Amino acid sequence: MTKLRLAIVGAGPAGIYAADILLKEQRPFDVSIDLFEHLPAPYGLVRYGVAPDHPRIKGVITALREVLDRGDIRIFGNVRYGVDITLDDLKKHYNAVIFATGAIRDADLDIPGIDAQGSYGAADFVSWFDGHPDVPRTWPLEAASVAVVGVGNVALDVSRILAKHAIDLLPTEVPGNVYEILEASPVTDVHVFGRRGPAQVKFTPLELRELGELRDVDMVVYDEDFDYDEASLAAIASNKQVKVIDRVLQEWRTRPAANGAAGPASRRLHLHFWAKPVEVTTDAAGRVASLVYERTRPDGQGGVVGTGELREVPIGQLYRAVGYFGSPLPGVPFDDRHGVIPNHEGQVLEPDSNEIVPGVYATGWIKRGPVGLIGHTKSDAMETVRHLVGDQASWWQPEDPSDEAIPALLAERGVRWTDLEGWHRLDEHEIALGAPHERARIKVVPRDEMISISRGE
Ligand SMILES: Cc1cc2nc3c(=O)[nH]c(=O)nc-3n(C[C@H](O)[C@H](O)[C@H](O)COP(=O)(O)OP(=O)(O)OC[C@H]3O[C@@H](n4cnc5c(N)ncnc54)[C@H](O)[C@@H]3O)c2cc1C
């Protein structure tokens, strides 16, 4: 019987689901899978993106772990495609590769002043509060008034973590130094800005409603934002999700802090709709001083147009949460405009000719762009795997498909890779660190320490 030796790059949900689906698929050939992951821990953005105070979502890790624990997938952690291993290496040892490398950096927001000191990308802040090993360990939380630009769930995560009292994060897996810095934050007001109206936001109702339940945080919405046009009314009437969002916001309009009145809480989270950021102004030292925005109004078709009315909110920091963006991978076609690998249903395409690149596949956020929930990466993986299985005639013919070849190659290159057993060791270590403090776990953050614990060094 033929055998498919498959490399998957990226051990986030997309990569793990692809492995799981392929192993369960009815197919006329054997399969062996090696999963390469840049970090010494698997699970991608479920571990390093989903907020620490969302333990239910982090719980997806249990299902992903079950897939890895079945024992039919080899993991090579702390191995970076493009640095430790190349496309030529993969061609030499495998029949095909699936790239599932996700997205970790921020999309740009092109307005004057966006690069000022004190202006950050949400993705960097998320990586910091989730203990990603490759970002600086400190964060200068020095501002009382902060702006967050964007109306998706990442904007809500960032606003919530900024506004929430750190003590309420303590039972979670938030890293110790993150807790200390959040604890000392002088923040009193977090302002969220969205170009469009309440009926066009991308938040999900559950995440929005959660903001209204934060202890000692007043939700502040403004009556002027609720003068709905026909398109908004139609969206509320026809879409259950939009209807629930509207209901949540309408309830906040009746709270004491509505319209910026004095409320009972020591912190406030303001939602500004119809507000298009146009400039970040700075002080003499080049630090963020204010956000200038233009009021917009509905264009009658669900979009917006500027009204020409400019307003200014004094702020000391700004976070742009306008989307994530994929990164190019050496030797693999890349679409610079959308930050994805060009593909047709997961079959990677040459950018100019649109011809299929044999043996090379993509799945998850790097295939589809950085939108959608963890569950969507499963259907993504199904589509990609279906093509991989059907493309048997065009798989690569590797020179050395032996199991020993990759460990030998990595050893020769001095790569300190980690394996599944090593991940279990690190996992148990983190859980044990948390236990005396009744915390789910305490994450080990420095990469070197993660590697040493995993490798039992
Ligand atoms: C802040 C935030 C909060 C979110 N909250 C939720 C939520 O509450 N609920 C929900 O359902 N979804 C949520 N999501 C979405 C969810 O995280 C994504 O849908 C999902 O993680 C995408 O999976 P992926 O495997 O494509 O990418 P990723 O999860 O990004 O995984 C990609 C993996 O590839 C690895 N990698 C990258 N480059 C290389 C390389 N060169 N070599 C080797 N490995 C590499 C990365 O280290 C990473 O482990 C959230 C996303 C973000 C950003």
The neighbouring-strand order within the major sheet is 3-2-1-4-18-17-16
CATH topology (level 3) name of the largest domain? FAD/NAD(P)-binding domain
- Please indicate the percent range of residues in DSSP E strands (runs of 2 or more): 15-25%
Number of domains: 2
CATH architecture tag of the largest domain: 3-Layer(bba) Sandwich
The number of helical segments is 16
CATH superfamily of the largest domain: FAD/NAD(P)-binding domain
Which compounds are bound in this model? flavin-adenine dinucleotide
From the N-terminal CA to the C-terminal CA, the straight-line distance is: 40 Å
Estimated structural class = alpha/beta
Oligomeric state of shown chains: single chain
- Number of extended strands: 18
The best one-word shape is globular
| CATH class type of the largest domain | Alpha Beta
Give the integer mean of the pLDDT values: 95
How much helix, percentage-wise, in residues?
Answer: 25-40%
Radius of gyration: 24 Å
- Which residues form runs of ≥5 with pLDDT under 50? none
Largest sheet: 7 strands, mixed
GO molecular function: ferredoxin-NADP+ reductase activity
Catalytic activity: 2 reduced [2Fe-2S]-[ferredoxin] + NADP(+) + H(+) = 2 oxidized [2Fe-2S]-[ferredoxin] + NADPH
Pfam families: Pyr_redox_2
Organism: Microbacterium ginsengisoli
Description:
A hairpin with a 6-residue loop joins strand 17 and strand 18. The chain is of the alpha/beta class and 457 residues long. Helices cover 32% and strands 21% of the residues. It folds into 2 domains: 194 residues, 3-Layer(aba) Sandwich (Rossmann fold), CATH 3.40.50.720; 215 residues, 3-Layer(bba) Sandwich (FAD/NAD(P)-binding domain), CATH 3.50.50. Bound molecules: flavin-adenine dinucleotide. The site of flavin-adenine dinucleotide has 37 residues, from helix 1, strand 2, helix 2 and helix 7.
